[in-house]
Specification:
The structure holds two protein chains of two kinds. Chain A is of the alpha/beta class. Chain A has 13 helices and ten strands. Chain A has a domain of 169 residues: 3-Layer(aba) Sandwich (D-Maltodextrin-Binding Protein, domain 2), CATH 3.40.190. Helices cover 43% and strands 15% of the residues of chain A. In chain A, strands 1, 2, 3, 4, 5, 6, 7, 8, 9 and 10 form a ten-stranded mixed β-sheet that branches. In chain A, α2 links the parallel β1 and β2. In chain A, α5 packs across α6. Chain B is mainly α. Chain B has a domain of 176 residues: MetI-like (MetI-like fold, Orthogonal Bundle), CATH 1.10.3720. Chain B contains 13 helices and two strands, in the order αββαααααααααααα. In chain B, strands 1-2 form a two-stranded antiparallel ribbon. Classes of the chains: A alpha/beta, B mainly alpha. Chains A and B meet through α3, α4 and α13 of A and α12 of B.
Chain lengths: 352, 273
């Protein structure tokens, strides 16, 4: 075979493999942002990414949807030698793992002007990137089936909702968070010491639970009417509730709730670190924080963002709610996760 | 020349199966660090934890038992259908074969959701039972019952195809001869039909068992988190807990289960031949 023929035959094989790299090389200033798929992408892309594109016409931004933080970590791990992702939005405990594995560039206070505008809670020791969005744990209910609207987590232990409760079990963060909430509500004390009270309480709830693994999620189970009660996250809950025409309700119970933290991280070895930092600055800036909070009700991290009172009321970022929040150290909880999951398996999931 | 023809298949297998499996096995010899990290030093820690934890043994046992029940149920439901198709005239046989395979044209996810609709609390079957006066019919989904029913239906086409492939030795003349010598229909089935169809039964059982052990979507959708199986645990460990070494070790165990099933199949096939 002559060299020319060999090249002609090899081209169709090699081209698809090389396409992503060719595309990157062709667009001089392209960054890839990995963040959650589904309803998050549907709202984040128009509210933040599109606005950034308009503000920076010289930069091309590719939104890479990920199912969850673990998937993002897997991708960044696999691409460590030649990163294709520049910015990742992920859960704080997973971001800590990535930081420990030297996958992210540290962004300490002072490294970007916008960081001076953030709440001190946005800087988590041992995590490379700052918090970008706060979310809080909520009680989900079906207004047609649960009357009046619940005000306490203890409604989950009401036997009249037998077979009508959909909760995601540990090791999912939703199950872990329920353990911490139940531990607080049932007088378990400091969760660093023990979550036994929470585990015992959930074991008593277990016979009334319809499913510990609602697919696609608890929100859908409630909207469809398959379940009457569930637990989840405020931002998604509020967004689905607004679309559900009264089929889904969201309550932040009187005993309080807890925050979950999403961080924004610059991938080490990014080919466009300046462009990536420009995006991170924009995502943390007042305009993006206001736009996204008012669109999807995540708690803002930028203290200078002027959020409308209506949107703020749908988050846990009001003074009276903040006072009742359980202060959770997710890095410490990540270390307890295996132990909590083990207790779920032995004491909760076996209950029929 | 014959060996040269094998090179593409061997190369593909080395690249897309053996190499990843070796990597997976190597990963199982790392320690899982708190929070999802992976230790860099080779260690037996993950395997020691796995083999000394009763939970993982119960997981293995549960996976094997549930898969065997599904295999048996698929055989029980698929055998009469396969026999009927085999005995049909050639014209009808093709049509019936298509009918048997047709469910494979619909994704397992869709079929699983179909079972969720039929067996769910407000589904057809519970509603029927309530209509017959059963005030609180047993829950048919989000437990083992739902997983077994749905996977049996999903794996039946594979079972039927395997049975038909192994029915080659079944000759109607032998059945007629037995009947003419006074054997009753059940005796003909027990002494003639069943022994001659053993190759198909073994093949179908192997395929259904292997597919049942490795199935993830159906147990995940219909198990309600109450049916701990190896496949769902691997997903949880890899994607939710970020414990890749344990996920890798469990994957190696699944491979070992397949190895045992294949060995058993080989021995039974040889003994039967």
């Amino acid at each position: 075979m002559t060299p020319t023929r060999r090249r002609l035959l090899a081209a169709p094989l090699v081209l698809p493999l090389a396409a992503p790299f060719i595309r990157r090389a062709a667009a001089a200033r392209t960054i890839t942002v990995a963040a959650y798929s589904g309803i998050f992408q549907e709202n984040y892309e128009p509210a933040v990414v599109d606005a950034f594109r308009r503000a920076h016409p010289d930069l091309e931004v590719t939104y890479y949807p990920i199912a969850n933080s673990a998937q993002a970590l897997g991708l960044v791990r696999a691409q460590k030698a030649a990163p294709q992702i520049d910015v990742v939005i992920m859960d704080v405990s997973v971001a800590k793992t990535g930081t420990d594995e030297d996958l992210f560039e540290p962004l300490p206070k002072g490294s970007l002007p916008v960081l001076d505008e953030l709440t001190p809670k946005a800087f988590i020791p041992g995590v490379a990137g700052p918090a970008v969005l706060f979310d809080n744990y909520v009680l989900l209910y079906s207004p047609p089936q649960v009357k009046p609207a619940p005000t306490s987590w203890k409604v989950l232990w009401d036997a009249s909702y037998d077979g009508k409760i959909a909760v995601q079990a540990a090791p999912d963060i939703v199950g872990i968070a329920l353990t911490l909430i139940a531990n607080k509500v049932f007088g378990g004390g400091d969760y660093h010491q023990s979550v036994a009270a929470g585990i015992d309480a959930i074991a008593k709830m277990a016979p009334h639970v319809l499913t510990w693994d609602p697919k696609p999620d608890s929100y859908t189970f409630l909207i469809e009417g398959t379940a009457a009660l569930g637990v989840g996250w405020n931002a998604r809950g509020q967004t689905y509730a607004r679309q559900s025409q009264g089929k889904l309700g969201v309550a932040i119970p009187e005993e309080g709730s807890l925050f979950q933290i999403n961080t924004i991280n610059l991938v080490k070895g990014s080919r466009e670190p300046d462009a990536a930092k420009a995006f991170i600055s924009y995502a943390l800036g007042t305009a993006a924080q206001k736009a996204f909070t008012e669109r999807m009700f995540y708690g803002p991290v930028n203290t200078k963002a002027e959020i409308s009172a209506e949107a703020l009321a749908r988050t846990a970022a009001t003074p009276e709610r903040l006072a009742k929040m359980l202060d959770v150290d997710w890095i410490a909880v990540a270390k307890m996760r295996d132990s909590i999951t083990d207790q779920w398996r032995r004491k909760i999931l076996r209950v029929r | 020349m014959a060996l040269l023809l094998l090179i593409p298949a061997v190369a593909v297998n080395l690249l897309v199966f053996l190499w990843p499996m070796l990597n997976l096995a190597a990963l199982s010899f790392r320690d899982a660090l708190p929070g999802g990290g992976i230790g860099q030093v080779l260690s037996l820690g993950t395997w020691k934890d796995l083999l000394t934890d009763g939970y993982y043994w119960s997981l293995l046992l549960n996976s094997v038992v549930v898969s065997l029940i599904i295999t048996f149920a698929a055989l029980l439901c698929g055998y009469p259908i396969a026999l009927f198709v085999h005995r049909a005239s050639p014209r009808w046989r093709n049509l019936l074969m298509v009918a048997c395979i047709a469910p494979l044209l619909v994704s397992a996810v869709v079929r699983t959701y179909g079972w969720l609709v039929l067996l769910g609390d407000r589904g057809l079957l519970p509603s029927l039972l309530r209509g017959l006066g059963w005030a609180r019919p047993p829950r048919l989904v989000f437990n083992e019952v739902g997983v077994v029913v749905a996977l049996t239906e999903i794996l039946m086409p594979y079972m039927i195809l395997s049975l038909l492939a192994g029915f080659g030795r079944l000759n109607p003349v032998l059945e007629e001869a037995a009947s003419s010598l006074g054997a009753r229909p059940f005796t003909v089935f027990r002494r003639i039909v069943l022994p001659l169809t053993v190759p198909g039964i073994l093949l179908g059982c192997l395929l259904a068992f292997v597919l049942a052990v490795s199935s993830f979507i159906t147990p995940s959708l219909l198990g309600g988190g109450r049916v701990p199986l190896l496949a769902t645990e691997i997903y949880d460990q890899a994607i939710v807990s970020l414990n890749w070494p344990v996920a890798a070790a469990l994957s190696v165990i699944v491979l070992a289960v397949f190895g045992v099933a294949l060995t058993l199949y080989g021995r039974l096939s040889r003994a039967e031949a």
